[in-house]
Amino acid sequence: xxxxxxxEAAQRLERYGRNALEPAPRAATLRLLARQFASPLVLILxxxxxxxxxxxxxxxxxxxxxxxxxxxxxxxxxxxRASAAVAKLRQRLALAARVLREGAPRLLxxxxxxxxxxxxxxxxxxxPADGRLLEACDFLVxxxxxxxxxxxxxxxxxxxxxxxxxxxxxxxxxxxxxxxRATAHGAIAARLASPQGETEFARGARQFGYLLLRVxxxxxxxxxxxxxxxxxxxxxxxxxxxxxxxxxxPELLPAIVAVMLSRGARAMAxxxxxxxxxxxxxxxxxxxxxxxxxxxTLTEGNVVLFAALDAAGGExxxxxxxxxxxxxxxxxxxNPLDAAIVAAGERRGLDAGxxxxxxEIPYDFTRKRxxxxxxxxxxxxxxxxxxxxxxxxxxxxxEAARERLGAWQRSQAERGYRVLALAMKRAAxxxxxxxxxxxxxxxxxxxxxxxxxxxDAAAAVRALARLGVRVKMVTGDERHVAAHxxxxxxxxxxxxxxxxxxxxxxxxxxxxxxERTDVFAEVDPQQKERIxxxxxxxxxxxxxxxxxxxxxxxxxxxxxxxxxDGAVDVARExxxxxxLSRDLDVLRRGVEEGRRTFANTLKYIAITTSSTFGxxxxxxxxxxxxxxxxLAAKQILLNNxxxxxxxxxxxxxxxxAQRLERxxxWNLRHIRRFMLVFGLLSTAFDLFAFVVLLKLFDAPEPLxxxxxxxxxxxxxxxxxLALRTQGPAWRSxxxxxxxxxxxxxxxxxxxxxxxxxxxxxxxFVPLSAQLVAVLLVxxxxxxxxxxxxKRAFFA
Length: 795
Description:
The chain is about 55% helix and about 15% strand. The chain is an alpha/beta fold. The chain is elongated.
């Protein structure tokens, strides 16, 4: 079947639409808007507006609604920008497939596949659409994404294949029948529409929300009770209490987090790290353990065939010839070992083009060998290569020979050589071959490969260790080779577990041993996943770096899955983060950027909650002592809104070096303690300011509210600059954008009482020069006290 022409494909693309599961741009925009207006904070604000309407306070209601619209619109705009940034980055990693067009194979974006296309599949590919197989050779497909069954399913010509499943071995071609949301995978996604598992960052944010809710409820109930006891109007008291609750809540948190994440994604992309899921930035910063494959990450990745030897250990042209046939004719998983064999054979003038291939028994992670059958006159020649022990198990050898060869293989592995074995046998011709034919073979010889450790791998491992990230090697390679590389890059080669040892362990035992092990060797895909889950069970945030089919389960299980640009489809699509180069130092920069983003997020949360908590407690304490409310509800909302604006620039702020040197995690106990210490310190100065306003200036209600609005807003702005660093504020300059945004809002706060439209709208009155000077003196004393308290708090 020659496939479609470009013109036919264009017509069908117009008819059926793009092969994608993402919502249309308009639907995505509506979903973002709905999320902004359905947030608890916005609902609280709307409730406050309704209370104002019930009181016939039309101006208050319009002001609250304006703040609702402003906050929601700002949040929508920032989240839309963040989503667009990630979508643009993901385009660089868009899934592609080999499709027949005009009778020739072409690599096309999977989104452009249409019904009627003929798609070519090989091991490592993701199936891009639903369809029916036209032909298949040793074709095994993992359907875990649809059925949950981990074992692959063998498919033959005429069988159905489904979008989202992955090819484990063999080759096939299929004709596309349905695409996008019309596929089985699309139908399940649309029906379930279930969110992904909660990340560490999302879990921390949820717990932080519960903390604020408890504090807000306590403050609201206390204020309502006191106001009722004082005989104040119920609706006015309710509006004031709701405003207090809103004032305690960081209303721009979604927008600010979106700003930070989108900026972090762009910064990481500039450093060669593409983020496929925005929340993975924080997860990368919180990573405490990195499990990584060996080849290409810790080693050069340029695998070279060092020698082809006979069974006695001498150079063998025949061994190279048969190995070249096997590697050149196999059609399964692309791998650097076969590429090295083919390259070495071509240098010797070998050419497999004239050979007639009969059949192939593809590689799998249980047998760990690959067999190719070629015609040899009236007979067939079966050539098998693979892992040393696996191939020897298929050969007719006595125990003495096995022990002698095993000792020789260990000596080569300890020198850093990876050893594959090669075997053959002649057989009577038949059309098909199976695993049962891999018996009674003759050992031909051995293939020695060299892949030296990267020159900078040891430095990268040490750099990650300084960041508190422990590196663990997880590889399917032979234990002695893995130990040799581990020792060269600074890992503890003595702390090693093999796949055989892991298979014999209960999960509880693996939990204990995984934490103490630096090298896991000879492991299969399921064991890689078990290792990740064991480390998670011990409370570690785990990153997994891999690029092969056998890495997909572990990538999916890890807190942050990391792959590389050249990885097989299923590995890259399973990853949260994709590196554009195989370099641990690139990953180290990604970890630092993730921590910088996380630190600035926590910085905003700690500072804004402590300052607003202090103001809310001040108002709650002043309410029974004053003949009027310390601030009107609309003034509280305006204060909170303006105080949050500079934090939109906090994404550009610098972070203390010591905060980058440790894993960033949510610590609610620390946030609660920070909120209490610096919030109550703010309250103490607020109460002092109340006394000054009442005793020295005999301030009536409008003057009192105006003066305290200005002072409370100035203290919230000043404390941003003071508490953004754990050291002395004058030794750590903020980013220019944060500094100028803070200064602009401070200027607006000082000017507000004198701007007649704004002043009359919010009930402000002009302040005398003497009163402004007193307020600035209180502000200076407050900042000096904050610096002293900060030294004690972070000591």
